[in-house]
């Protein structure tokens, strides 16, 4: 079983649910000051997408990763952010679908300002673990911020265990996905 693919798919499902809920807010509520690491849902969710772009570029060996980060233009509405996040999630799923267990130790180069040759190198498995943890961390913050609005925060953690399948069937149908029984 490709656990990175399972996590990438769970990531997409959680992002879709969260952004569908956030999309019910007015633009003012999307940008409203809130207590968290980033002071609004807009800043938190745009940060997630920008980091995704950077890490996906690194996973693909894209020497432009630092420039991709620097050129990021934040979405001004949740409705504009959702399809961009979904496209990023699809890229990550496609990447993970091609992985084998042997890939986990392959080194991924990062440009942290001094170029790829001078930047750190990390095992792919750890890079993906970090990326999924980063997503979960900030999605949790956005979930908590959403709890301070009139929109009920969605369930975000029923995408991995087989016993929770019933809770994700509608999401799977919407994406045309199937799972082993």
Description:
The protein is mainly α and 181 residues long. The protein is built from seven helices and two strands; from the N terminus they run αααααββαα. Strands 1-2 form a two-stranded antiparallel ribbon. α3 runs parallel beside α5 (78-97) and α3 runs antiparallel to α6.
Largest sheet: 2 strands, antiparallel
Helix-and-strand structural type: mainly alpha
> CA-to-CA gap between the ends?
14 Å
Shape: globular
Q: Could you name the ranges where pLDDT drops below 50 across 5 or more consecutive residues?
A: none
Mean pLDDT: 92
Please provide the count of β strands: 2
Strand content: under 5%
How helix-rich are the residues, as a percent range?
Answer: 55-70%
Give the radius of gyration.
17 Å
The helix count comes to 7
The SSE order reads HHHHHEEHH
Query: Order of strands across the widest beta sheet?
Result: 1-2
Task: Please give a handful of descriptors for the protein shown.
single chain; 181 residues; mainly alpha; two-stranded antiparallel sheet; globular
Topology:
Layout: H1 3-22, H2 27-31, H3 41-59, H4 65-70, H5 78-97, E1 107-109, E2 121-123, H6 124-146, H7 169-175
Antiparallel strand pairs: 1-2
Helix pairs in contact: 1-5, 1-6, 3-5, 3-6
């Amino acid at each position: 079983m490709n656990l990175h693919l399972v996590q990438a798919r769970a990531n997409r499902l959680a992002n879709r649910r969260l952004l569908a809920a956030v999309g019910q807010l007015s633009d003012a509520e999307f940008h409203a000051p809130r207590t968290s690491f980033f002071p609004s849902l807009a800043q938190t969710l745009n940060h997630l997408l920008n980091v995704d772009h950077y890490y996906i570029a690194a996973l693909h060996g894209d020497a432009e990763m630092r420039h991709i980060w620097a050129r990021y233009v934040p979405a001004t509405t949740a409705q504009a952010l959702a399809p961009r996040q979904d496209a990023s999630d699809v890229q990550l799923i496609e990447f993970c679908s091609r992985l084998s267990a042997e890939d986990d130790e392959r080194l991924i180069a990062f440009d942290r300002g001094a170029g790829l040759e001078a930047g750190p190198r990390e095992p792919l498995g750890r890079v993906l673990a970090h990326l999924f943890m980063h997503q979960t961390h900030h999605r949790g913050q956005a979930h908590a911020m959403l709890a301070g609005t009139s929109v009920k925060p969605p369930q975000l953690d029923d995408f991995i265990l087989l016993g929770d399948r019933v809770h994700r069937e509608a999401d799977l149908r919407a994406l045309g996905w199937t799972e082993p029984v």
